[in-house]
Amino acid sequence: MPERAPAPRPDAPHDGEADEVVTAVLTASRLLVAVSARSLASVEETLTLPQFRMLVVLSTRGPMNISRLGTHLDVIPSTAMRMVERLTGAGMLERELNPGNRREILIRLTAEGRRVVDAATDRRRAEIARIVGAMPPAHRTALVEALRAFSEAGDEPPVAEQAAPARTGTDMRW
Amino acid sequence: MPERAPAPRPDAPHDGEADEVVTAVLTASRLLVAVSARSLASVEETLTLPQFRMLVVLSTRGPMNISRLGTHLDVIPSTAMRMVERLTGAGMLERELNPGNRREILIRLTAEGRRVVDAATDRRRAEIARIVGAMPPAHRTALVEALRAFSEAGDEPPVAEQAAPARTGTDMRW
DNA sequence: CGGCATGTTTGCATTATGCAATACAAATCA
DNA sequence: TGATTTGTATTGCATAATGCAAACATGCCG
Q1: Which of A23, A121, A69 is nearest to B147 (CA)?
Q2: C or N: which end of chain A has fewer Cβ atoms within 10 Å?
């Protein structure tokens, strides 16, 4: 392993307070992942997380071709291809020949696919809402603002070293 | 300890404020997962996320047998078995025959395995710290408290099977 | 038309996973 | 103590997710 020096290090290594924040974030992120997995499992036992992500992309962005679909999921076309085949076989997707361009094929959700997405999404939001509901109300508002600030701060393109698409063990990126 | 609702309603009401919180949480969670994937990829291209999780479990909980290891990762023994084989082949794990009980085998990290875990963990904490550092300081403290309340509200482990946190806190797992 | 770019498929290899069956070892029972 | 049951590890078999490279198909240009 190349001990490549990490480019971004704009902050002091061991600041007690910063450590506290980082730990809080990491802990919360673990909970969030667990919630997602649970919600999905409760709706569709046979659906994997990558498959669910594909349905979600099609649901929120509308029909698109295999390559673009793969791009949204950070996988190469061949992977997207096989996933589409499986989900088509499961009745959740359908392929539509694009009349204007015969080398592209539009992939779209079927009614069944949309049903699954909606059910899982509702379930996840409900689970998160349940957890939030168990928080002291004062913390709820603080959470919204703090998370917004956090998301905003993290939105910036990852400093340097963005070039590599970074090999994908990257599952569960709902 | 906050007044965590003893009987959380299984169905959450969809009032505007709750929706806001849920949306903020979902948005932040996407960012967190992306950060995790990036950090791992930047340290070890050949390591998958499940493999990394296995190393982390062994790092934070110490050596254990295949079955328990699988339990911590939510996979069945055969899956854990094969993962151990691969990671052993990669020089990150080693098997130790248990003298007191010949039907169990202890799996432990090698120095190389520990190095990988530490590097990836440091990298991830650094990335999060970078994001947090870009937040207004006032929001930082609010974030800690709010996330703690959130994690606590959602911490409903089936059993209390967590031993004392062996090392430097933060058993963030993946 | 001929080459280049864009998209889709296939072939091949590896990892992750679950289920079922097997092989041992330890514990329990009759 | 010998037979049965239980706990672990391991192997066989099957499917999904992935990447890379190569084979095709189609659209565009000069």
Answers
A1: A23
A2: N
Whether residue B104 lies within 8 A of chain A, CB to CB, comes out as: no
Chain segment A67-103, per-residue pLDDT in tens:
999 999 989 999 999 999 999 999 999 999 877 788 8
Measure the CA–CA gap between B5 and A161, rounded to whole angstroms: 45
Domain hosting residue A56, numbered range: 39-153
pLDDT (0 to 100) of residue B44: 72
Tell me the nearest-neighbour CA distance from A101 into chain B, angstroms: 34
Torsion, Cα of B3, B6, B12, B13 (10° steps):
-60
Contact B12 A134 (CB under 8 A): no
CA–CA distance, A139 with A144 (Å, rounded to integer): 9
Q: Is residue B9 over pLDDT 70?
A: no
Of all residues in chain B, the one with the smallest CA distance to A125 is B22
Pairing state between β A105-109 and B93-97: unpaired
- Chain A positions in Cβ-Cβ contact with residue B34 (cut-off 8 Å): 173
Residue A8 belongs to a domain: no
Interface subset of B 105-144, CB within 8 angstroms of A: 116, 119, 123-136, 139-140, 142-144
- Nucleotide with the nearest C1' to A97 CA: C8
Q: What is the pLDDT of residue B156?
A: 52
Cβ count within 10 A of residue A57:
21
Give me the pLDDT at residue A7, please. Answer: 38
Q: What is the pLDDT of residues B51-103, one digit of tens each?
A: 998 999 999 899 999 999 999 988 999 999 999 999 999 999 999 987 778 88
pLDDT tens digits for A20-37?
888 888 778 767 766 776
Q: What is the CATH number of the domain that holds A75?
A: 1.10.10.10
A7 interface with B at CB cutoff 8 Å: no
Does a structural domain hold residue A168?
Answer: no
Let me know if residue B7 belongs to a domain.
no
Interface test with A, best of B130, B148, B155 (most A CBs within 10 A): B130
Q: Is residue A70 part of a domain?
A: yes
Per-residue three-class SS string for A28-53: HHHHHHHHHHHHHHHHCCCCCHHHHH
- What total number of domains does chain B contain? 1
